[in-house]
């Protein structure tokens, strides 16, 4: 009985240590704070003759992140609940962009954890790959180090 209890205690201590270690620091690059997002997206859009026509809030869980970032967010939430007694707020924003030349429309989804950007997704239709690639390049310049996902809709 005693060896099993000792093993369980060591496993629990290992889990707590893992949460404590991984719960600190940032999620992903997290170098861009939320208050900078609108300006950075406008700058990206302007580089490809595109304008922001609408901004709205969306569910943060509707914005996909790479698996390793999702795992880190879960660990950080557990860490905050254990140390502070509450979780870190998450929210999402959607920016609708329209190209001035061909009226192509893009959706730019931004996921925020606390006050830092953790994920960006571009949603586009199938028609203009070159414009989408240029927009992606412009966003990567404004959000260096971020993984920007791309989705298509018909």
Tell me about this structure.
The chain has 154 residues and is an alpha+beta fold. It has one domain (2-153): 2-Layer Sandwich (TATA-Binding Protein), CATH 3.30.310. 42% of the residues lie in helices and 29% in strands. It has four helices and five strands. A five-stranded mixed sheet has the order 1-2-3-4-5. β3 (105-113) and β4 (116-125) form a beta hairpin. α2 crosses α4 (129-142). The longest helix is centred in the first third of the chain and has 21 residues, at 2-22. The protein is elongated and about 75 Å long. Mean pLDDT is 82; it is low at 19-24.
Mean pLDDT: 82
- The shape is elongated
User: Which range best describes the helical content: under 10%, 10-25%, 25-40%, 40-55%, 55-70% or over 70%?
Assistant: 40-55%
Number of DSSP E strands:
5
CATH class label: Alpha Beta
How many domains would you count in the coordinates?
1
Largest sheet: 5 strands, mixed
- Radius of gyration based on Cα positions: 19 Å
CATH architecture call = 2-Layer Sandwich
Q: Can you tell me the CATH topology?
A: TATA-Binding Protein
Quickly count the helices.
4
List the helices and strands in order: HHEHEEEHE
**Straight-line distance between termini:** 61 Å
Low-confidence stretches: 19-24
Structural category: alpha+beta
Strand order of the largest sheet: 1-2-3-4-5
Our estimate of the beta-strand percent is 25-35%
């Amino acid at each position: 009985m005693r060896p099993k209890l000792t093993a369980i205690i060591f496993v629990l201590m290992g889990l707590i240590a893992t949460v404590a270690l991984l719960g600190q620091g940032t999620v992903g690059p997290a170098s861009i704070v939320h208050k900078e997002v609108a300006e950075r997206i406008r700058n990206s859009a302007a580089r490809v003759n595109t304008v922001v026509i609408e901004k709205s809030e969306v569910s943060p869980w509707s914005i996909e992140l790479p698996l390793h970032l999702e795992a880190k967010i879960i660990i950080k939430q557990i860490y905050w609940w254990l140390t502070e007694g509450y979780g870190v707020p998450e929210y999402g924003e959607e920016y609708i962009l329209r190209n001035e030349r061909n009226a192509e429309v893009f959706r730019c989804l931004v996921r925020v954890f606390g006050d830092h950007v953790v994920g960006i997704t571009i949603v586009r239709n199938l028609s203009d790959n070159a414009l989408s690639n240029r927009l992606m390049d412009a966003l990567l310049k404004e959000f260096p180090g971020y993984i920007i996902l791309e989705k298509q809709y018909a």
